[in-house]
Amino acid sequence: MPRKSNNIRTNFRLQSMKNGTEQIMEPVKKTAKIAALAAAAITFSVFGMACRQKQTNENGNAVLAAEKNEAAAPKTIKLPAEKLDSGARVVYLTFDDGPLPGSDFINKATLEHKFKGSVFVVGKHVLNGKTSLRTLRDFKRNPYLDVCNHSFTHANMDYKKFYADPAVASADLRKNQEDLKLDLKIIRLPGSQLWALPTRDFNLKVQKSGPTAEILKTEGYKIYGWDVEWGQKGAAPKETAEEIFAKIESQFEKESTWTRNHLVVLTHDIMFSKADGQAQLLKLVQLLKDKKYILENIRHYPEKDSGDDSDDDLKGVIKEQPKQPS
Fold first, then answer.
1. What beta strand segments (E) does the chain contain?
2. What pLDDT is recorded for position 128?
3. Do 115 and 238 fall within a single domain?
4. Is 325 among the domain residues?
5. Tens of pLDDT, residues 85-94
């Protein structure tokens, strides 16, 4: 019997030691589990960053690949300037912010209906994916379109900060020119109604973007504003084709365009992403053609005005920041 008592005591001690060990190990196990979960989270985060970086690199590589293909392909022969009779009135349709929804329609419409226009493209929109890359390629291959510079970042929609450092702002425009391999040194500054041509300028001294424009002008860039803005409401035109046509006619009749008999219309690609906006654009083009207005590319805009170039004479030109960011 004593032996049995000793066995019982021994087993009790062993069970107590086991329970104590488990109590000691439980926090250790929990700590190990937390550490494992943390390691898994870090691994997932690093993997996510790598995937995002890979996507960015793939987009960048896609741009480079597209550029190489573009360089290898035959250059599109752009259309020559229209012959102008004395007193002819010329309209320059310009489309900002592409590639965006609406850009492909603009490309298709100009080809099918044979009218000239000019697109001002944003670099970061080109990097949205293969569809945007294809749109840029199609723009470049379209003989009816001029492809121009509208900055790489569109100032990230913070124009005050963007133009506070002219060196940084001008570098952004330069990057867009080089990365997208744009042939024409033609710019529309984001969020700025300003003109700067080799022999004359407008709003250069009063706009916050003026110092940036000065830098770019010395590098041979031409910077264009607009005479009439086709307003935007959401992703659609604010005015009908008839209403914007009436504004165009009024500007011509009052001789209040920046250059006599030449009028630049500002629009945004997104306005023509839906059927109604598309119909309005085609209606405007037909109204202009019916009135015998000449539709021209922005590269053929005259560098000199035949009349008085002073700003005081430009009564109809807007002199403040645009309501719609250009």
1. 90-98, 117-121, 145-149, 186-187, 195-197, 200-202, 222-223, 228-229, 232-233, 236-237, 262-268, 294-295
2. 87
3. yes
4. no
5. 989 999 999 9
